[in-house]
Structure formats: C-alpha cells, structure tokens
Amino acid sequence: MITISNVSVDFDKKRILRKVDLDIDRGDFLYIIGPSGAGKTTLLRTLYMDVIPDEGYVQVEEYSTMTIKKRSIPYLRRRLGIIFQDFKLLEDRSIYDNIIFALKATGVSKNECKKKAVKALTNVGLFEKRESLPGELSGGEMQRACIARALANDPILLIADEPTGNLDPATAKEIFRLLKKINKLGTAVLVATHNYKIIKQFPGKIIYLKNGKIVKEIEDYR
Q1: What Å distances lie between residue 141 and 45, 127, 130, CA to CA?
Q2: Most exposed: 4, 71, 183, 207, by fewest CB within 10 Å?
C-alpha cells in the first residue's frame, strides 16, 4: 500500500534520514520510536510529501515523490489522515467547521463535506459537541476532534505525531483505545511517540530510529 525505499533526507547540509526502507500494509498498526532528533517527524513528513527525499522515493498508492506534481499533493493528502501533538485546530471555529474547512481544502464538495464531518464526529463520540469551539473542550476532546478531522476523508493511513504528548495518562489511554478501534475497522495507523508505557498497553509493530536510520524492527512488542 505504501513503500518507503532507500530514503535519505538532508537539511542544511546535515543528513536527517539515511537509506530508510519501510513498507506499510493495509491494517498495520506501527510505532516509530527513537531519541529526539532521530528523524521521526521528518519520516512522517515524507509520507504526506511535505518533504521530498534527496535520495530514494516514497510511494503512496499511485503517488510517488519521484513524479508527483504540486497540484496533485492535495489529492494524495485526501488518502492520509494527519494528527498533530498541538492539535492545530482553528480557535475561532467550531470543531464541525474545523472539519469542513479541512475537507474543502482537499476539494471535497459542500454536500460531501457535511456528510463526512457528521460521520467523523459521530465515530469519535463528539457529535453532541459539534458546535463547541476548541477552547471549550478538554485536551482529550480536542485530540478526538483532530482524529475526526483526520478520519473525515476515509484515509488509508492515519499518521499521528506524538498524539498524547500534551495529555494526562488516563486521557492518553482513551486516545489509543480510539486509535486501536479505528485500526480494527481497516485503517492503517502509524504513530511516532516517546510514550513507551502506551506501547506496552497497546501493542503493535515497532520501528526504532536512531541517527536517521532504522536500527531495529520489532513485530509485536508486549
């Protein structure tokens, strides 16, 4: 479904990723772990083609970093859901309107936007709070709103960069229960995290990055 092949990335003459190879299949639940500066976020950014490799390539379905045109990137990103640690919600809009805004940005029609937003909010248990502003929600509810936004286009892969970094342990468990539920319904999930306690509670395949290289792969960490 997704292939990362021999990928290297340089920033300011410094090599951030070094010949990374990784395949992601439908239904996978993967963690990327490693020390700060290992290249985890950069690797995630190559998937939604915010970063184009200096060597190698990333293939997401029919989209390749070797051939993709700028005008095609929004269509690629329809196939991916992205969850950020700091939420990146628009503070002056309801969570419903946040999802509508994100869908419109990828070219979804007005009627489809409404249907997709309602479905996504229902799936994360936030339909009753759809008119709430982000500032009126708890941290866990804001992260669920972000997951709803990421799910709205029925992505093949959900990408989460430190999704529980700002949450207390109980709320973090709630978020991972939701991610596991989404995964069981068929969506692949890729999580970059430092939260090793969560990994023990919600097992998955582990990719260990160090100095921009995959140094270890563990099939099922328990």
Answers
A1: 25, 11, 11
A2: 71
